[in-house]
Write a structure and sequence with these properties.
The protein has about 280 residues and is α/β, with parallel strands linked by helices. Helices cover about 40% and strands about 20% of the residues. It contains 8 helices and 12 strands. Strand 9 (about 200) and strand 10 (about 205-210) form a beta hairpin. It is globular, with a radius of gyration of 24 Å.
Length: about 280
């Protein structure tokens, strides 16, 4: 057998090095999290045995007495549901390797996200919980303000309590505001439909993007929703992995979301995420 040529020896050495590098890369921890569709919660009903929204006082915005009144919770005026959607990501201390990343890229039920985008305050579980809880509490306060402003009611005359255990972050703001309006206004916002959605909200009712929308649409479809309210800025992302039979409705404000829901109920023109 002839001796290997210098070129052959070089190629063999390079092949060995590449194999070793691939083995190291496959085992090395990577700065990513793998996310999947999370739970949904009907803000008009109960979550884990407790009403999500309870309203005391206010009567309604159509001329009723705004002082006193009984606490209202349960399913509000609607026979349908308003589903707040979430994603579930690997914990910050979980090691994510190359195989997990490749699997997430090719699996429509999972997504690979930079760990810093999922956990912007670091890797400490207690610090992360405090951060997401603070975001949720702020989101709830702002949602109450936005909903009452929409109805022309004063926070001095209406007490709203929001509870959504084990769910953090600000992305349920829009759904909280819609749920509060449903309970105070007396209208059936859903028209009997199961309507899901996501989006932050500010005190003036402006709806903002949240991320993870393709996974949230899958969670919505899984739990029976037929309509999904998506922040207008995230239409393109929502269309990317849209489940069949789920209708996207883009919204930019609380007022716009209420108009879109009215159009759905009345058979009017409903905004859409056009390609």
């Amino acid at each position: 057998m002839p001796a290997p040529t210098p070129r052959a020896r070089t190629l063999a050495a390079c092949g060995t090095l590449v194999t070793a590098l691939l083995a190291v890369a496959a085992l090395a921890p990577l700065p990513f999290s793998v996310a999947q569709p999370g739970v949904t919660a009907n803000v008009l009903g109960e979550y884990k045995g407790r009403p999500v929204i309870t309203v005391t006082g206010g009567a309604d915005s159509k001329g009723g007495d705004s002082k006193g009144g009984d606490a209202r919770s349960g399913d509000g005026a609607s026979e349908g549901a308003l589903l707040a959607t979430t994603i579930a990501a690997t914990a910050p201390e979980t090691t994510v390797r190359l195989g997990d990343v490749l699997g997430g890229w090719f699996d429509t039920d999972r997504a690979v996200m930079p760990r810093d985008a999922v956990y912007p305050v670091g890797d400490d579980p207690e610090e992360i919980e405090r951060h997401t809880t603070a975001q949720m509490e702020e989101s709830q306060d702002v949602a109450v303000t936005a909903a009452l402003r929409e109805l022309g009611l004063s926070e001095d005359d209406v007490e709203v309590n929001l509870r959504l255990a084990d769910v953090g972050g600000p992305s349920a703001g829009l759904l909280f505001a819609l749920g509060i309006v449903d309970k105070l206004d007396g209208d059936d916002l859903t028209g009997g439909r199961r309507i899901a959605g996501t989006g932050t909200i500010d005190a003036d009712g402006k709806v903002g993007p949240v991320g993870g929308v393709p996974l949230k649409t899958q969670a919505a479809k899984r739990d029976g929703a037929t309509v999904f309210l998506v922040p207008e800025a995230e239409c393109e992302a929502a269309r990317a992995e849209l489940p069949e039979g789920l209708r996207l409705v883009p919204v930019a404000t609380l007022d716009g979301a209420l108009d879109a829901l009215e159009a759905l109920r009345e058979g009017g023109r409903v905004p859409s995420c056009r390609p």
